[in-house]
Design a protein that fits this description.
188 residues; mainly alpha; 6 helices
Length: 188
Amino acid sequence: MPFTLPSRTPSGPRRRSLLAGAAGAGAAALLTGCSGSDSTSGTGGEGSSPAAVRARARAARDSERLARRYEAVLAAHPALSGRLTPLLAEVVRHAEAFGGGGRAAATPSGGSTEGSSAEPAVGASASPSPSVPASEKEARGELAAAERELADRRMKALLGVPGELARLLASVAAAGGAHAFLLTEDEK
């Protein structure tokens, strides 16, 4: 007589069903988390508290400082322009998303963007030009370290800011982590 196992039907949902449901719920949460607000600058409504305004201004300044670091590395190592120019453009967009925009060299070609001519001296004189290591690898490493440090600071700031600003900070911090990875990844 052949040996057969008793057929036992699981009492709950199958593993695949749970994983598919969890993936769907996660996607739905991400989509609702990225919903837009009525305010284009994000300073209205819940984000207008003094702490939120300070956090937004600090995030814009930090992104502008990081953009200046990228520009200094590009000036010292023009061979890195293919790799750094897209990252610089993203950092400039991050500064603009936080309400910054007084950047003189906001375009990858070194020209100024529209609207930035009113305040180029404010961003440029806020801090001295950063020093750049002599080797390209060290310069990329310093940029990656700056991206990581800024991403960590932004993640810590999430608890003290309202919803929309927290989502923006989290998104930009994640982008900073990706930038750090791209900067340290050796070309293949």
